[in-house]
């Protein structure tokens, strides 16, 4: 492998705060992977669309990691659905940036999400370097498991993803499940798919003790804390947790004085159409007194919130991986998650948390009640969670990704020779 990689993250910057807008696990993925690649001697340039005229053209995000803000379309007001109209402008500016460097400046392109893959495919052909692509989410998968009130992904995205799958020299899948979806739904060659788990910062997300964390946050030491952390949108299904909490309180009204349900994050996606919908739901369910809305927080503070929790709920309708589930487990907190997508890999049912096969509030209430009623189970699963999380590290992710770049280069060379 050479010495420099062009990382393309068009629609969201790795510098953005995860938990609101379009910023989420992918942002964490891009910046953490870039940092670990740089630590192994690979310089990384991350190209992302500028969303403010005040942003500098280049930001040094870490030693060896530069974030390049590309002007493409109006700085503010563009939704993700409108970004395909700016692909040509974005691609032109990326190619222009490379043209100002010596020949052979980049050794590989790694694109994230289908919009970036469209640009990556063009850069691959112009620069004669391999394209590695990470989907993160896929339209066909999302459309198979839509939440009530959510909007299906458009055909234009489906076609765009199919084009990227065909163009990439190698596709990185987060889990075996995602790899099968790429093959079965998109016709990817099994030989062109590499399964590489994302990681977790085990220095930031480490056991700190529930009592200590609750003191930091001003939470009662004897509270039952059921946490949701992430973007507030139908896909992530925070409403499932709230409806389950309403069932819990109906079954056991005495729980009300001990129950705290923090929702850490902000509206995103179709959730932006009704930004107060979740708060309105809490009021309608009669649980507004136990639900606490917290704006998005940085990684260090998120680690305190997960540490303070009795359990972290991840009720998503689909997750290619589910970083927050790994992060929570690394702090010693069991996760109650929907048995969908990558969450079946991230959470070991009965070992590091509990998997729920449905999104029915009563089923979720039953799973949560097991933890509410059994502190010994919380302790046992918490220990299993810490052990399980050790299997996921960004250092290992970076090592495997470097191997993927080498393999992609080999595949591209074989194609050119044939």
TrEMBL record:
One Pfam family hit: Glyco_transf_4
InterPro entries found in the cross-reference section: Glyco_trans_1 (IPR001296), Glyco_trans_4-like_N (IPR028098), Mycothiol_biosynthesis_MshA (IPR017814)
UniProt keywords, alphabetically: Glycosyltransferase, Magnesium, Metal-binding, Transferase
CDD domains (UniProt xref): GT4_sucrose_synthase
Residues binding 1D-myo-inositol 3-phosphate: 11, 22-27, 80, 113, 137, 157
Annotated binding of Mg(2+), by residue: 309, 333
Domain Glycosyl transferase family as annotated: residue spans: 213-385
Positions annotated to bind UDP-N-acetyl-alpha-D-glucosamine: 17-18, 25, 231, 236, 297, 319, 327
Domain of life assignment: Bacteria
Catalysed reaction equations from the record: 1D-myo-inositol 3-phosphate + UDP-N-acetyl-alpha-D-glucosamine = 1D-myo-inositol 2-acetamido-2-deoxy-alpha-D-glucopyranoside 3-phosphate + UDP + H(+)
Gene3D superfamilies the record matches: Glycogen Phosphorylase B (3.40.50.2000)
Domain Glycosyltransferase subfamily 4-like N-terminal: 24-203
EC number: 2.4.1.250
HAMAP family documented for this protein: MshA (MF_01695)
Family assignment from sequence similarity: Belongs to the glycosyltransferase group 1 family. MshA subfamily.
Annotated function: Catalyzes the transfer of a N-acetyl-glucosamine moiety to 1D-myo-inositol 3-phosphate to produce 1D-myo-inositol 2-acetamido-2-deoxy-glucopyranoside 3-phosphate in the mycothiol biosynthesis pathway.
UniProt-recorded name of the protein: D-inositol-3-phosphate glycosyltransferase
Organism annotation: Nocardioides flavus
């Amino acid at each position: 492998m050479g010495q420099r990689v062009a990382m393309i993250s068009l629609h969201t910057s790795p510098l953005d705060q995860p938990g609101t807008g379009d910023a989420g696990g992918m942002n964490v993925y891009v910046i953490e992977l870039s940092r670990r690649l740089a630590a192994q001697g690979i310089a990384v340039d991350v190209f992302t669309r500028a969303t403010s005229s005040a942003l500098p053209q280049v930001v040094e995000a870490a030693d060896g990691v530069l974030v390049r803000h590309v002007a493409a379309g109006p700085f503010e007001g563009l939704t993700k659905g409108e970004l395909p109209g700016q692909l040509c402008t974005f691609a032109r500016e990326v190619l222009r940036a490379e043209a100002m460097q010596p020949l052979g400046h980049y050794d590989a392109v790694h694109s994230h999400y289908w919009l970036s893959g469209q640009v990556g495919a063009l850069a691959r052909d112009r620069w004669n370097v391999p394209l590695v692509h990470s989907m993160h989410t896929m339209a066909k998968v999302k459309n198979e498991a839509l939440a009530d009130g959510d909007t299906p992904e458009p055909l234009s995205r489906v076609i765009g993803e199919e084009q990227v799958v065909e163009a990439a020299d190698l596709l990185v899948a987060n889990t075996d499940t995602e790899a099968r979806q790429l093959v079965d739904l998109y016709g990817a060659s099994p030989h062109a798919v590499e399964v590489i788990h994302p990681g977790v910062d085990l220095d930031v997300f480490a056991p700190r003790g529930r009592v200590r964390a609750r003191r930091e946050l001003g939470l009662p030491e004897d509270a039952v804390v059921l946490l949701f952390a992430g973007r507030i949108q139908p896909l992530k299904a925070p409403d499932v947790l709230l409806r389950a909490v309403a069932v819990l309180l109906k079954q056991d009204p005495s729980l009300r004085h001990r129950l705290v349900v923090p929702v850490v994050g902000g509206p995103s996606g179709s959730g932006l159409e009704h930004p107060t919908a979740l708060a309105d739901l809490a009021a309608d369910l009669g649980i507004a007194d136990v639900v606490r809305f917290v704006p998005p927080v940085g990684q260090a503070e998120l680690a305190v919130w997960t540490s303070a929790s009795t359990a972290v709920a991840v009720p998503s309708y689909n997750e290619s991986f589910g970083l927050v589930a790994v992060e929570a487990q690394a702090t010693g907190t069991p996760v109650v998650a929907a048995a969908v997508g990558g969450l079946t890999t991230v959470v070991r049912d009965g070992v590091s948390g509990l998997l729920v096969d449905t999104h029915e509030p009563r089923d979720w209430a039953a799973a949560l009640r097991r933890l509410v009623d059994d502190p010994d189970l919380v302790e046992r699963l918490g220990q299993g969670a810490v052990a399980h999380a050790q299997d996921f590290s960004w250092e290992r992710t970076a090592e495997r990704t470097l191997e993927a770049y080498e393999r992609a280069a080999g595949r591209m060379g074989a194609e050119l020779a044939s």
